[in-house]
Amino acid sequence: MSVWIFGYGSLMWDRKWQQDFGCRRVEMAEIQGFRRIFNKPSTINRGTPENPGVTLNLIAENNAICTGYAMEFDDHIHDDLFADLDSREQHYTKHQRLVRLTKSGEAIAAHLYIYEHDNVIKSDCCNHLAQLALNAHGVRGSGRDYIINIAEELNRLGIADPEVSRVYQALQRHLA
Predict the structure, then answer these.
(1) Long-range contacts of 122-128 (CB under 8 A, 24+ apart)
(2) Integer Cα distance of 138 and 140 in angstroms
(3) What's the pLDDT tens digit per position in 36-81?
(4) What letter does residue 45 receive in the DSSP assignment?
(5) What is the DSSP-derived secondary structure letter of residue 46?
(6) Which residues contact 123 (CB under 8 A, 6 or more apart)?
(7) Cα separation of 61 and 167, whole Å?
(8) Which of 56, 108, 172, 174 gives a 20 to 30 Å CA spacing to 75?
(9) C-alpha angle 90/139/73, rounded to 5°?
(10) What's the pLDDT tens digit per position in 91-141?
């Protein structure tokens, strides 16, 4: 038996995490009706309460499709896997949704995390989001590296994501 996780942010480029939990298979997958958005303040992993980082979330939107990774794990590590994810994805709510594996077209039930609280970053100004990332550093790394790593992973896979692209480009302008 398997457990599937759908990753759309740092889980996509965190190969060490995938290895630590014995990920047996990683496939590109799509979830319909959602898109990425940088609206989750990170006050521990990618920032502090004084300088919060900005991390990805999913927001429901008609006709949207979010492409990410479906990662398959052995069911016997279920408890350890979700204990780690619950700690890592602090304040996110775990959901189970159907995702479609892009290569085979197979629909699978995968777990994913969505931030559903009121404490969101309300600005969608890419310069403001880039500035937050530049000033933020938490226990898992900098806000800057978070944006760069997801942008580079999506680019490597040929996935065009307008939200990630616009914030990444703003970040690059600040770094120039």
Answers:
(1) 122/39, 124/37, 124/39, 126/166, 126/167, 126/169, 126/170, 127/170, 127/173, 127/174
(2) 6
(3) 999 999 999 999 999 999 999 999 999 999 999 999 999 999 899 9
(4) S
(5) S
(6) 129
(7) 19
(8) 56
(9) 55
(10) 889 999 999 999 999 999 999 999 998 889 998 899 999 999 999 999 999
